[in-house]
Amino acid sequence: MKNSTLRTLLSHRSIREYKDKKVEEEKIEDIVEAGMQAPFVSQMYSVIMEKEKENIPFDAPILFTICVDVYKIKKVMEKRDWELVTNDLTLLIFGIQDAAYMAQNMVVAAESMGLGTCYLGSPVMTARHLKEKYNLPEKVFPVVQLVVGYPRERPPVRPRYPLEFVLFEDEYPKFSDEDIERAMETMDQGFLQEDYYRKLNAMISVKSKDEDDLTYDDYSWTEHISRKWGQWYDELEGQMEKLEACGFELSGED
Ligand SMILES: Cc1cc2nc3c(=O)[nH]c(=O)nc-3n(C[C@H](O)[C@H](O)[C@H](O)COP(=O)(O)O)c2cc1C
Predict the structure, then answer these.
(1) Ligand 1 centroid, distance to 119 Cα (angstroms)
(2) Is 0.90 topped by the overall pTM?
(3) What are the percentages of helix, strand and coil residues in the chain, rounded to 5?
(4) Which of 12, 14, 153 to mutate to test the pocket of ligand 1 (most atoms within 8 A of CB)?
(5) Domains detected in the chain
(6) How far apart, in Å, are the Cα atoms of 153 and each of 13, 28, 115?
(7) Separation between Cα atoms, residue 226 and residue 180, nearest integer Å
(8) CA angle 115-116-122, nearest 5°?
């Protein structure tokens, strides 16, 4: 028998349909405080919240934007007459972890109270816009957004790779073709069974082809991620520019 924390964790699924119902203030506080209680490197995070606004994806009542925040550390250090000298890449690697563990604690807290959640990865692309919209100071970078609300759908729990494709004792194994195919099969079956991509209308087309040779009947998770990471790339320079616009200097030139 699994305890209630494990049951919450193992029944996670992203929710993309929400009831027209506000989330109680108390619950919002609990969610963010649970986020803040995550282990941290240096609390390099801030959260911007929007409530009951039009244009929140999936008509959810709450949109959180979770940011890496090195600005506050600088301010604290200034008070102690210290200068921040660590390079921005190292700060980002640690800061992204602070922000991510916080965000995931928020997800678990929300779900433990019967709420639904869904991350949005778009800030990586729209950082400049969010910086302006939210008036973010230098060295604050929006990493991810999170919608929260009362679910209006109950999709199945989505599959994950088999445990033996993830957990390796003592050393990293050599995969056989069958190991890889088994892992792909587990993922693809689950997403196809749910008709996941058809429901989301989320097929990525193949740029080099006029006509697709797949329909949603056989458009699977491994096909989706292959089309995504095999065709879409943000130029390294473009990504650096966004980080630099938010005050992170990664080019090595001061
Ligand atoms: C960083 C991150 C960004 C994501 N961005 C989006 C997004 O933009 N839109 C969306 O519908 N789901 C998004 N998701 C949710 C994933 O699609 C989802 O977690 C994954 O398909 C597994 O499904 P599950 O969460 O229901 O188990 C994101 C998840 C993460 C961790």
Answers:
(1) 5
(2) yes
(3) 45, 15, 40
(4) 14
(5) 4-154 (3.40.109.10), 163-231 (no CATH)
(6) 10, 21, 11
(7) 14
(8) 140
Cα dihedral sign for 54, 59, 64, 65? negative
Block residue for tokens 């606004």 = 53
What CA–CA distance (Å, rounded) separates 183 from 166? 10
């797949």: which residue's tokens?
214
> Is the CB of residue 69 less than 8 Å from the CB of residue 44?
yes
- Indicate which residue's Cα is closest to atom 27 of ligand 1: 13
Which residue's alpha carbon is at the smallest distance from atom 3 of ligand 1? 121
DSSP 148: E
Question: What tokens appear for 6 in the block?
Answer: 């494990």
Measure 16 CA to ligand 1 centroid, in angstroms: 10
Q: What is the pLDDT of residues 121-167, one digit of tens each?
A: 999 999 999 999 999 999 999 999 999 999 999 999 999 999 999 99
Q: From residue 156, give the alpha-carbon distance in Å to each of 95, 102, 189, 194, 196.
A: 33, 25, 13, 7, 10
